Amino acid sequence: MATLLQINSSIFGGQGVSTTLADRFVSHWQAANPNGQIIRRDVAAEPLPHLDSATVAALMTPAGQRTPAQAERVTLADTLIDEIQRADVLVIGAPMYNFTIPSQLKSWFDYIARARVTFRYTEHGPEGLLTGKKAYVFATRGSVYGEAPADGVTTYVRQMLAFLGIVDVEFIYADGLNMGDEPRTAAIAGAEQAIAALTAA
Ligand SMILES: Cc1cc2nc3c(=O)[nH]c(=O)nc-3n(C[C@H](O)[C@H](O)[C@H](O)COP(=O)(O)O)c2cc1C
Question: What is the number of structural domains in the chain?
Answer without folding.
Answer: 1
